[in-house]
Amino acid sequence: MESAMLIKNGRVINPTDAGGKPLSSVASNQSLDVRIRDGKISELENELKTKAGETIIDAQGCWVMPGFVDMHTHLRDLAQADREDICSGTQAAAAGGYTTVVAMANTDPPTDCAEILDRVIKRIHERALVEVLPVAAVTKGLKGVELTNMVEMSDMGAIAFSDDGMPISNLGVLRRAFEYARLHGRPIISHPEDHDLSHGGSMNEGMQSTCLGMKGIPSASEAACVAREIEVLRYTGGRLHFAHTSAKASVDLIRQAKAQGLSVTADATPHHLVLSDAEMMPYDTSFKMNPPLRSAKDVEAIEQALVEGVIDAIATDHAPHSKLDKNKPFDHAPFGIIGLETAFALCFEKLVLSGKMPPNKFLALITTHPAKILGIPAPQISVGARANIAIVDPEMRWHFEIGESLSKSKNSPFKGRALKGKNLITIFNGKIVYFDKDRAQRRIQEVCATST
Ligand SMILES: [Zn+2]
What is each CA distance from 179 to 113, 138, 174, 184, in whole angstroms? Predict the structure, then answer.
């Protein structure tokens, strides 16, 4: 039977557009009921009457928003399915309110040829709970030497190109990559890091690393890479997106490049927005990620850049790792933390509850802005739009209990953290793909086929 659903009593929140203006002809911040038919939003009115056979969702006190877009997720799978697979990763995404995730190419084996991309796409069809858009590698084996067949993989559906996890140090290779990616209008997603500067480091270089006796990764490792890649872009043209911006110096360079009219965009992660290196639990590998948590000044610059629009999007860099790997000594443990389930609440508190920006502008950072960078339709609550929806209680206080995480991996620095704002129900193409079983079950009710 086709899905038929009515979301009642909620407040519809739509994001601003990519230019920061309210979406034209679409309601926002209004109490409206939402009817869903055949995977799409069919009606958007005040007090719609229930119909026979519908599933009714009571969204009293909740915000009804378009499902979120995460433009930087590591879904693992293939040879690393013990850490995460496309099923568990998209379950975690749905729990966080995400209905679209972009899967990075540093899989094992890397997504660097048509054959592997084809395997990934097949698995997405078989196992994904929400939309997964695959990224393909820029160079074979992520080695930074020989370009992949970008034209072929673009035709197959690669949404962007990235050697994420590895920087492309050879600028001649990067230049050719821009030229090929430009043919299809695809962005290059850069992981800006200078390996000669970062080599051997496991946390931010500064007072904290000195106190802990750890080798540091200077912020210059990121900023130097941002600077040189901007110069290559200036020469070749194309589209350059910087992932997980963490340093004030990088923000300054990106601001300048944008002012000069270059096609540069950037994202930042929730953890770089809410945590500094001073808040790390010493030697706890749940706080080890790349780029590392930076200084309080850097955190401030990231927040300011999101408010000003210099950084365009928030992306999780969800990076699952096994307990065995994360239990290694700090220096030897892998970089990365999971983040899909905590992203909304962490950023909501930091940006909206603090009064830094209104809800619709914040929502744009996780919907319209990443969608524009990726060249996909802007998610919105409007008649005719795909029924991809997150129903969030903005007042709900909760704790992130790591045992309840739907990810296969549990490497989060936010274990047990008190949060405000909880996604209760996620709808993808008109189907409920997540509901918070303890908090949302009573809100869902089937209307039997004979009632009116
Ligand atoms: Zn990266």
Answer: 18, 12, 9, 10
Q: Model-level pTM?
A: 0.96
Domains of the chain: 4-64+385-446 (2.30.40.10), 68-374 (3.20.20.140)
How far is C-alpha 128 from the chain's CA centre? 16
- The rounded distance, in Å, linking the Cα atoms of 413 and 175 is 37
- Cα of 390 from ligand 1 centre, angstroms: 27
| pLDDT at residue 25 is higher than 70 | no
pLDDT tens digits, one per residue of 246-284: 999 999 999 999 999 999 999 999 999 999 999 999 899
CA–CA dist 351, 268 (Å, integer)? 13
- Ligand 1 centre distance from Cα of residue 164 (Å): 5
CA of residue 271 to ligand 1 center, whole Å: 14
E-strand stretches of 93-195: 98-103, 131-134, 188-190
Give the active site residues. 317
C-alpha 39 to ligand 1 mean position (Å):
34
